[in-house]
Amino acid sequence: MKTLVVYDIPDDRIRTRVFDTCKNYGLVHIQYSAFFGELNHNRRQELQQRLRRVLGDKEGKVLICPVCDKDISLILEVAVPETDSFSRQVAGLQKGPLVF
Fold this sequence. Notes:
Radius of gyration: 17 Å
Low-confidence stretches: none
Shape: globular
Strand order of the largest sheet: 2-3-1-4
Largest sheet: 4 strands, antiparallel
Distance between the termini: 24 Å
Oligomer: single chain
Structural class: alpha+beta
């Protein structure tokens, strides 16, 4: 099942270890503190245990959320492309959010 992992961890060292652990489980980095990918129930529980050990007694929170295909089809995104104003003028783009 598709899985979304999001975390809020103030310690840079611990956050980097969480990042590396998520990548090692084959998840794709989609935002600064968010990963997404395919994990079955056992792999999600294994990831939870591993991240619990990584976090230890440090401040932070990790959410591991299974996401069904129906919910994925309802995802909405708002994004602003990372281009400079010159590139926007050349491309004829207006500044502002893109809504999908």
